[in-house]
Structures are given as C-alpha cells and as structure tokens.
Amino acid sequence: MSTVNYSNPNLDLTVRVYDQFYDYDVNVPAAEYDVVHSYFLSIMTTRQAAGNFTVSLFRVAETTRIPVLTLLEDLKTNNGMNINVNLAYYLNAIRSRATLLGVGAQVTPNFYQARNVLP
After folding, report:
1. What's the burial of 41, exposed, middle or buried (CB within 10 Å: 0-12/13-18/19+)?
2. What does the domain layout of the chain look like in residue ranges?
3. Considering the entire predicted model, what is its pTM?
4. H or E element, residue 29
5. 70-101: burial string, b at 16+ Cβ within 10 Å, e else
6. Could you read off the pLDDT of 95-116 as tens digits, one per residue?
7. φ, ψ at 91 (rounded to 5°)
8. Alpha carbon distance 75, 95 (integer Å)
9. pLDDT tens-digit profile of 88-97?
C-alpha cells in the first residue's frame, strides 16, 4: 500500500533555496541545508533570522565558489565578535559596494559626482 508521506530517497535529495527580494533560486543538497540551517537556528534568536542567514550563506558559497560547509566550518571556529566580522566579510562579497556592512567610516563621494545626484 502506498502512502502520500513516503519520500523516495533516490529522487528527493535536494532543497530549493530561494529569496524573492534578491531573485535568488537554487537547489541544494538537503543534508547541507539541514546542517547550515540547524547551526543558524542554534545561534540566532528567531527562525526568520536563521532562515535569512542560511539563504545568504548559500548565496555567498555560490558567488565565491567556496563549498558551503567550508564556509560554515570557518564560522564555527570563531567566537563572538569574530563571527560578526566574518559574516560581514562574506555578506559584503554579495552586496552592492554602496551598502557595506561593518564599515565604521562613512563613505564620502567625490565632490563632482555628489553634485550630480538629485535629491
């Protein structure tokens, strides 16, 4: 007798990771997704934050061509402030240069370029 809840392990080995805001969509191995997501669930305060960081780490891995588990191990070996610095470094790799994370100094544009920006 067949059941609807049965999943075939030969066919169902991936998880679809998507982010509507950045229009990011990729299929990743389910085991890797579970490892990354469970780690972020253990250190984040909300499920939404853990999910957002999970998606971001997969985006960073795809952009930098570094395996996601290698990035995760790099994050796990650090503590406290170092995690924040490493996350900012990796997230800045996929963000616009105008919106860098963890930069204390304000970016001052060139005078002539700043004049051309309309309010």
Report:
1. middle
2. 14-115
3. 0.67
4. strand 24-29
5. ebbeebeeeeeeeeeebbeebbbeeeeeeeee
6. 776 677 766 666 676 666 666 6
7. -70, -30
8. 19
9. 887 787 777 6
